[in-house]
Amino acid sequence: MKFCAIICEYNPFHNGHLYHIQQSLKKSGCDGCLCIMGGNFSQRGEPTLCEKYSRAEMAIAGGATAVVQIPTYFCTANAEVFAQAAVKIATSFASVTHISFGSECGDIRSLSELARFLLKEPAFFKERIKRNLNDGFSLGRAKTHAIKECIDAGLVKFTHPNVVENLLNTPNNILAVEYLKVLFQTGRTDITPITIKRINELAEAKQDDKIEYQFSSATAIRESVYQSKRIWNIRKFIPTESYKIFANSLRTIGIPDMEIWGNLALYRFRTANPNDLALNYDVLEGIENKLITTSRENIDYPSFVESCTSRRFTQSRIQRIVTACLLNLRAEYVKHIYEIDRLPFIKLLAAKNNKDVLASLNECNTILVTRKSDAIKAQQDPFAKILMFAEDKANNLYSLLMDISKDVQKEFAISDIYQKPLFIK
Q: Where are the alpha helices (DSSP H) in 47-122?
């Protein structure tokens, strides 16, 4: 089988994701979609609305062929690290011939041109980034401003300069550029990148008579569920079969209690040693001292995050740092993703129960964990042990946010890496 890889979070899976899968299969001509998905904590630095196995099952119901996981060490980091891990997982499978991702621009040429430019990072570009950082910009804003300066000065030419200079202002374009950078670094010319223009709003979807679904962003869906504690009002935005799985997950497991999450975060920083915090990923420039001081000045988590946010440390970045500190995701191990060509193992979360699918997935250059013996074998690699230990911590932390029965708590407490994948007919 030929697979089109889709890098995703599905937090939760909705009609836009269904559209993405359908369009990816149509554009690529592949036999199926291999979804490479984050775990129980998102790249925004928050617990996901529902746990990863439910989200993987929702994806299979929505047309995915198989779902594998990006380890928590990487799926909770910035866009560059997230992309490094995700693309290295995709290129581990011989059956992957395409990588598809959503983008706000839908222009693969402009995305590719910018990715190749950023890979080179000429001296005149680096100088402008450094100057912008010194002026207090975040790294993302510093790069965006530097690109515009280089275009205006005639130092670099793009096919569509007005498109390129705005690409790093939107989250999915940023991820798309990072995916392409990693793919180009691998030299894998046998894997074709494709992008699908994102449709976020219902009004935009109505302009296209060929689109049959009603659309809403995952952010809007999450906000609605958190505010109302109900899901009937977002039913029209989620495919029918996926909605049934979502509803069952919320009935049996529930959604994360963000007040508990906030209290755990405040406790972590109020009782932290700054030297220990500084070992965690992205804790830089003395931000550990700011986190400790601010946690003692605020009694609620939203105020704490807002007080820590600045031009250099955006809200999403602070939230990612919070997750890294709660899980003790050490910077040295996150950065190890740049030093390896492949991960020591890949965890299969769910797949269609089809012999051709499973045979194609097994054409993998690393250990595909589908049973306990695979996990034990993978643990011969010291880095695999570190990644697996982090998954256990993430799994148990996530369970503490849920109002669930003792029996379900026990299921969460079982070592995550040994849990069997879902094989779905």
A: 52-61, 72-75, 79-90, 108-120
Residues 6+ apart with CB under 8 A from 126: none
**Which among 36, 44, 156, 123 has a CA at the least distance from the CA of 86?**
36
Q: At residue 324, what is the residue type?
A: A
What CA–CA distance (Å, rounded) separates 370 from 377? 12
Instruction: Specify the pLDDT at position 212.
Output: 55
What was the pLDDT predicted at 320?
98
Q: Where are the domains of the chain?
A: 3-104+175-250+340-424, 120-169, 258-329
The strand pairing partners of 193, in sequence order, are 99
For the record, the structure tokens of 69 come out as 């996981």
Give the whole-angstrom CA distance, residue 1 versus residue 249. Answer: 31
Backbone dihedral angles phi then psi of residue 225, each to the nearest 5 degrees: -65, -45
Tokens found for residue 324: 């890294």
Token pair recorded at residue 283: 């804790």
Collect all residues with Cβ–Cβ distance below 8 Å to 319 and sequence separation of at least 6.
44, 45, 46, 305
Regarding beta strands 345-352 and 66-69, do their DSSP bridges make them parallel or antiparallel, or are they unpaired?
antiparallel
Instruction: Report which of 233, 213, 214 is spatially closest to residue 223, judged by C-alpha positions.
Output: 233
d(CA 289, CA 294): 8
DSSP state of 93: B
Are the CB atoms for 161 and 110 separated by under 8 Å? Answer: no
Nearest to 6 by CA among 243, 195, 152: 195
Would you state the CATH architecture of domain 3-104+175-250+340-424?
3-Layer(aba) Sandwich (3.40)
How many whole angstroms separate alpha carbon 157 and alpha carbon 151?
A: 7
β-bridge partners, 173: none
**Omega within 30 of 0 (cis) for the link into 302:** no
At 207 the pLDDT is 47
- Asked whether the CA dihedral 281, 287, 293, 296 is positive or negative, the reply is negative
DSSP state at residue 67: E
Distance CA(73)–CA(242), nearest Å, equals 27
pLDDT of residue 168: 84
Instruction: Please report where in the chains the tokens 């049934």 appear, as a residue.
Output: 244
- The total number of residues shown for the chain amounts to 425
Segments in the chain below pLDDT 70 = 200-213, 405-415
Tokens of 343: 């991960």
In whole angstroms, give the CA distance from residue 78 to residue 72. 12
- Both tokens assigned to 310: 């600045």
Element (H, E) at 103: strand 96-103
